[in-house]
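We emphasize that the prediction below concerns an isolated chain of 124 residues; any contacts that depend on oligomerization or on bound cofactors are therefore not represented. The input was used exactly as deposited, without trimming of termini.
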Amino acid sequence: MAKEYIKFSVSPEMVEKTFKLVENCKKDGKIRIGINEATKAIEGNAAKLIILAEDIEPAEIAMHIPLLCKEKNIPFTYVPTKKELGAAAGIEVSTSAIAVVKEGDKKALADIIKKAEELSKEGQ
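Result of the prediction step, given as a token string:
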């Protein structure tokens, strides 16, 4: 059974694009790492995109993120694992969430946001 905070499924191609975006943003833009930092970025309207791992345990720590994103009209997407998300962010530990605060590549961010919004509408 899918976890309650996962609202839609993401294609492997989109996951790959998301990881590339995170890698670019850590070099040329700005990201905030972790559930708490992502939550603060959402609440402060600083986040342009939220990326959540699908393997967060316990799931309850992430259940508020999609709700906040919808309330603040901030797009969100998913990647399969915390480990891969942490690696893409350039850290040696896993991370459950990342907030893209300043994009490095505007076109790549716009593409992912467009697809995430389409998937989110389908998943409702």
